[in-house]
Specification:
This protein is an alpha+beta fold and 538 residues long. The protein is built from nine helices and 13 strands. The strands form three sheets. It has a six-stranded antiparallel beta sheet. The protein has a five-stranded mixed beta sheet with strand order 8-10-11-13-12, covered by helices on one side. The chain binds adenosine-5'-triphosphate (ATP) and magnesium ion.
Length: 538
């Protein structure tokens, strides 16, 4: 907790002032007391002149009445509490008031002149002090003769009662001075320190970024002091911040404008990039189509060319036969024609069949999503059905095929194209992986689906794919067995089905001599398809 500097100052200064005042007052009181005691003692001393001769005379004459009268008169003095007169033998002659006996005990003189202990103890202030005078009587011849002693008793209470008034004056004086000083100090400190400091702290406390523009600080109390300097510094600082802020505001504005133009430029550039991307995609698609058409033309060229050659050869043969028929056809000519026509027919049929099969493959490349049947099914069951369809072929081979499906994997997708994918991959494993091998192991695994995707892993321990071929196997017409009638469209069709119809991904891992693994990840819920042409992967 913070305490006001004015209060703290007041406490410290008045703490010290109070201690000093108390000490000085005590010293003053002690001095007053000493002074009064000295005065009382000198008054007692003076009593020797006044009463000494009377006492001596009364003693000499044994005049008890005079003696009693003198002592009663002395006792009336305010500084005297008791008087005792003894003879030269030390025997008590007469006493009044409070006196001390031979043993120094307090005694009270009775009316008959005897001493008795006082009725009550008078305490510290009742302590008596005394002054003893000799009683000396001057004989007629002028020689003094000691005939006894008289003692005057006084006590502290008498001195205190003498200084009482002075004490009160001193104390009242100190208290009034202290209070007056306190009051003046409080007023001054409040005015010169407390109020300006409060104003300063209120001003600084209320200062924030929004009210910097309000009026400058002007101290209402306190005059030209360091606090005014401080207030001026605060005003200066406020001005500096204001200038800084307005400069910054200009900068912010410029920045905002810059930002806006930047955003606009970014938007324009983004639009341009998107446009370029669209263009690129379109030209890529066109290029893909182009290469596709070129591939198709190239592929069809051979069987159709062969068919054309065979057909025109057959035509020639028929013409020649006609000529011979007019000249006179021999049996052997007819036989030769029939043999040739037969082999040309076989060639023609084979080439036209090849063309027809190529055309049907091409049709599959442009996978038709809309004609594919979508339904709910169990993935394991669909894979098993496909394997059953393939089993007549598989049974003729020496290879071991296993199917492992973890659980029921419910899907809403396209079972037809999915079966086509599995069949193409199994065929590839047998055709390429196990080519020229008398043993091989092929496994189809479906692990428990993680999340909303299913995985199909088709793995063989066959020849594997050369690393240089790995990134080309999905291209259309890429095949390592061209001469053996492979078209190289199988994996391209697989890729298209997986990525477009089934909405998934296909990944291949292969090592020559170790085997090949195709990993297909597809959503349990296949995407919905609109009727749009699918451009095959180039
Ligand atoms: N399991 C596999 N083991 C080894 N090589 C493979 C395997 N699968 C594919 N390949 C290689 O990938 C090439 C491309 O396969 P893809 O199925 O596209 O064409 P293809 O089988 O040669 O011809 P198509 O399938 O059209 O009859 C194959 O020629 C072969 O070299
Ligand atoms: Mg194939």
């Amino acid at each position: 907790m913070t305490r006001s500097i004015a209060t703290r100052l007041l406490r410290i200064i008045f703490g010290c002032y109070f201690i000093v005042t108390v000490v000085v007052t005590v010293i003053q009181l002690a001095a007053e007391y000493r002074h009064t005691r000295t005065r009382v003692e000198s008054e007692i001393e003076a009593m020797q002149q006044t009463f000494g001769p009377g006492i001596a005379d009364a003693m000499w004459r044994f005049n008890d009445d005079i003696m009693r009268g003198i002592l009663a008169g002395m006792k009336e003095l305010p500084i005297v509490v008791g008087i005792k007169v003894v003879d030269d033998q030390g025997k008590l002659v007469r006493a009044v008031g409070t006196v001390l006996d031979e043993q120094g005990r307090h005694m009270q003189a009775q009316a008959d002149g005897r001493l008795a202990p006082p009725l009550r103890d008078d305490g510290l202030f009742g302590q008596v002090f005394s002054r003893e005078f000799p009683i000396s009587y001057k004989l007629e011849n002028g020689t003094p003769q000691d005939i006894g002693k008289w003692t005057v008793y006084s006590n502290r209470r008498i001195i205190l009662s003498q200084v009482e008034y002075g004490f009160i004056l001193i104390l009242v004086n100190s208290v009034i001075k202290t209070l007056a000083l306190w009051f003046i100090f409080v007023l001054v400190v409040r005015h010169w320190l407390g109020k300006p400091l409060q104003q300063l702290s209120d001003y600084v406390g209320n200062l924030n970024i929004d009210n910097l523009g309000s009026k400058p600080l002007k101290l209402e109390h306190g005059g030209n002091t360091e606090l005014d300097l401080l207030a001026n510094k605060i005003n200066e600082m406020r001005e500096n911040i204001l200038t800084g802020l307005s400069e910054r505001a200009v900068l912010y504005e410029e920045l905002a404008v810059l930002n806006e133009s930047l955003e606009r430029r970014v938007a324009e550039r983004t639009e341009a990039v998107r446009h370029a991307q669209d263009e690129l995609a379109r030209s890529e698609r066109l290029a893909a189509l182009g290469s596709m058409v070129a591939g198709i033309a190239h592929e069809l060229n051979t069987p159709i060319g062969n068919s054309l050659v065979a057909a025109s050869t057959l035509n020639d043969k028929i013409h020649a036969l006609g000529q011979r028929f007019e000249d006179g056809l021999r049996r052997s000519d007819m036989q030769q024609f029939l043999d040739e026509a037969d082999s040309i027919g076989v060639l023609l049929t084979r080439n036209i069949e090849r063309s027809a099969s190529l055309v049907s493959s091409f049709k599959q490349v442009a996978v038709d999503r809309t004609s594919s049947q979508r339904r709910r099914f169990d993935l394991g069951a669909v894979i098993q059905e496909n394997m059953n369809t393939l089993s007549p072929v598989l049974r003729k081979t020496p290879y071991e095929v296993t199917v492992e499906v973890a659980t029921l994997v419910a899907m809403d997708s396209y079972p037809g194209p999915l079966g086509q994918v599995v069949a193409a991959l199994v065929n590839n494993a047998i055709m390429h992986g196990f080519h020229n091998r008398d043993h091989g192991r092929l496994s189809i695994t479906v692990p428990v689906p993680a999340g909303d995707h299913a995985e199909i892993v088709i793995s063989d321990d066959g020849a594997g794919i050369a690393s240089g071929h790995l990134n080309r196997i999905f291209d259309p017409f890429f095949t390592t067995r061209m001469s053996e009638g492979s078209s190289g469209l199988g994996l391209n069709i697989v890729h298209n089905i997986v990525t477009t119809i089934l909405g998934g991904k296909i990944h291949v891992d292969s090592m020559p001599g170790v085997g090949t693994t195709f990993r297909i990840t597809i959503p349990l819920d296949a995407p919905m398809h609109h009727e749009e042409p699918i451009i095959p992967r180039a």
